Write the structure tokens for this entry.
Amino acid sequence: MSLINSKLIQEKGLTPYQFPNPKESLPEIVIPNAIPDDERVWVPQSEQVWFRPLCLNASHGYWTNLLRVRKSGVLSCHRHPMGVHGYVIKGRWQYLEHDWVATEGSYVFEPPGDTHTLYVPEDVEEMITFFQGNGVMYYLDPRFHTTKV
């Protein structure tokens, strides 16, 4: 237990969980500056599009990342065979196939099988969204042909 937690527990009279975690449980991941100052942490995906992996869990098939876009226009047409959750941190975006706009503070759930084309409006200088996905992502052309997985 850290000195910070020991002091907090003592000062507030709090009681933490008293038993060990299951032996198969993994350690926590804490990333203090999820939106980094160091540009090298962002992985280029295409021109003016980056992602920042936060958790890639191959054994359970899920991933979390930040998507950052610094251009307007169509980003990609894609499909998720499993559900995806998103939270818009900065800017806004929409899917050409739907009539809603995801703005700062919006939560988005993409159901399994939903196919959509991400679009960032012209007046958005930077968009950052946290995504939690499960499984793969299929990139498609407008006629539903897979271009990459």
User: Anything to note?
Assistant: The longest strand covers residues 49-57. The chain has one helix and twelve strands. The mean pLDDT is 92. The longest helix spans residues 3-12.
